[in-house]
Amino acid sequence: MPRTSLSFALLLTALTALTLGACGDNLAASRPDAGAPPDGGSDSGSGTVQTPGVGLVVVNSDFASTSISLLDRSTGQVTRGDCIDSGARPPGVTQPLTGDVVVPSWPQPGHPVLLIDRKSAALTWLDPATCAPMHQLDVSTGFAANPHDVAGVSSTKAYVTRYDANPAPTPDPSDRDDGDDIVIIDPSVPAITGRIDLSSYAIPVIGAVMRARPDRARLIDGTLFVALNEISSDFSALAHGRVIAIDTATDRVTATIDIADLANCVDMSYVEATRTLVVLCTGDYTAADQAQTSGIAYIDVTASPLVEVRHQLAAAFGGRPLGAYSGIASDGALGFGVTPGVFGGEPHDQLWSFNVASGRATRITDASDSFVYGTVLVDTGHQRVYVTDAFATTPRVQLYDYSSGTAVHQTPVATDAAHGLPPREIAWY
After folding, report:
1. Which residues are CB-contacts of 126 (< 8 A; sequence separation ≥ 6)?
2. Residue 175: what pLDDT?
């Protein structure tokens, strides 16, 4: 089942925990919020900071239909409320958008708006000036590949993480139809040009058919870091967390970083000032206490060999597992995260700030319901936090200013006045 925004993914996870069924997807994670910007600016949080993208893209969805909105990078206000939606099929689009669309975890070279449709496995590139599709690529290779992220290296090379495995692959390896892998594409064509098999990086669990399940990726100085969920084929078993490193010059895995005390590691943010990769792990949803295997792991990307140097359990966040987290504010000294609510009661979803030095989490606010908060995005240049809020009555992107050291609520932004679809994800493009 595809990974999606926090509200839906938390719902799936909670159902899995209740039934121990095969629904189990991972919780959503933080979205693009750190790392060396593709336009050469700094995003470390100190001094003069250039915003990493040319704008912000919002995915609005009720999981049946999708619309895309664009926001101004300086003000956070809507510039295109209806960039494209599921009902549109303009020239250049063979497959219209489904209700399961996400966006890459970091802007692509040249700053197009790139949409990842996990249901159809179609990648769609849009011109942000006109919202017209430039081209589209099907990366399914004949099965439900469930792409989760695209990491662009150049105008002619990008990596696509494919979360699911093909239940009936052909014997010919040149068919590139196995899944549980990364496919290499040339976005300028567009076309698939290669494949990196990740099945051997699945951690064995007795009695289970394990999958590596590559999720979000982050490119740092020629190395692609990929978070692996390590979940079985039927979603009933999880292994411990793992991140791999790939040399983009050779397309070979050069390091495996195990995160032994945490599980279901889904996403990463990067603190350039300290050269630290901050890994979000949402925890083992089959465990009695998911928060005991959920948390934040820290990897020093300058170390050799690459290893986890420390971690923080999510138990500090009110005893709840983390569903979203960004660890880049104030040069990595401050983080912002979301914890899920519970069915039919309280607590609802909660937004937290986290003091890394003291290990203390402080609750900022409660959502109006459970399973409505989604992406947490930190804009270090404007010392601003964005949180998608899919509450049915007032769907908004919530904004907070943290320049004073405390998150202060700003006027929220309605992103889809045309359709009223709730915002699920927000990212740089």
Report:
1. 68, 83, 84, 112, 113, 114, 115, 132, 133, 134
2. 82
